[in-house]
Amino acid sequence: MPFLFSRSLAQQLLVPALAGGLLLSSCDSKPTATGSDGTATRTDSTGTGASPKATAAGVVKPTGPKPIWGPAIRPEMQAVIERFMSFHNKPLPQLTAKQARQQPSAADAALKQMQVSNITAPPLQCDTLTKTLMPGVKARIYTPKGGAAPYPVIVYYHGGGWVIATIDTYQASAQALCEQTGAVVVAVEYRKGPEHKFPTAHEDAFAAYQWTLKNAASLKADPAKVAVAGESAGGGLACAVSLMARDKKVPLPKYQLLVYPIAGSSTTTPSYLANTQTMPLNKGGMEWFFKNYLRTPADGKDPRINLVAANLKGLPPTTIIGADYDPLKSEGKDLADKLQAAGVKVNYKLYAGTTHEFFGMAAVVPEAKQAQGVATTDLKSALK
Fold it and tell me: Polar residues bias: where (predicted)?
């Protein structure tokens, strides 16, 4: 039976989660999972729509052999990838952007694994409010329930290659940052290609950063304690925002967290060539993202896209988190080296056996919990 598409598992849970504190997050002793904007019904590996058979509570383990492309993949990561593969998604190059947005995501796979492993989410430790910042741009604002205002503030940009995904897809990461750092998190919903080509997402990202600086008081936040953060395309956006702030004489963020960022436009790096079949992201998928967001190949040379070739002097201290089986692995390390060469303090961490998108999966992937811990420590130190 073909896979049936409707509202995603994460979207089905999102409204009651926000209302009742069931959002999947990471707090003191309990790890995190994610939400999604893909539109899929629950399904097992046969695509029948039945819920997968549960295992012992808290146990996360794969059921098959390691994928050929991931001989050293960690067991918990492999289990999530198996769930992702059970969705039978079509490769991105075979789809339009509209069709791709209807497919379930790696975040859905993590949520599905959470159900299989009978892992429940901890109570929500932050309040949320969705607000329109300007025409076409909104944000979900996460505010700590505890602590004392004014809070530090983190402007967070989600991934999805500037084409797919939303703040719903990456809500677990934004929530974890809020709960673990004690900061307000402004998760930005920027416009995407191909409807809105480069540099729209970048301009939206910078405008949202400026909005946050100007409206910090209304957010119970301190405008002198602002960081930027993002994953994948969002990691690239976060760094580009720092570049634009520097060049436009706008106050720089105090810190930047870049999680497997898109930091270049070359698809011939060692990690691109080594990751042509990886899931959930591979070389073909990245080429599809570039095709849908960039107006022409020349846009790929713009320093806001090609960060590894940009002037990086004067940027804020940075944490870069890399995934192992990821076409973006090489450029993440390259960006770390280039930042250090430009005099920027950098903490680079590569998590062996992980794939792209692992950061928000702390409920089921131990390395994600470790990575969130590193990010939290670095952000709290910078924003104290």
Answer: 29-49
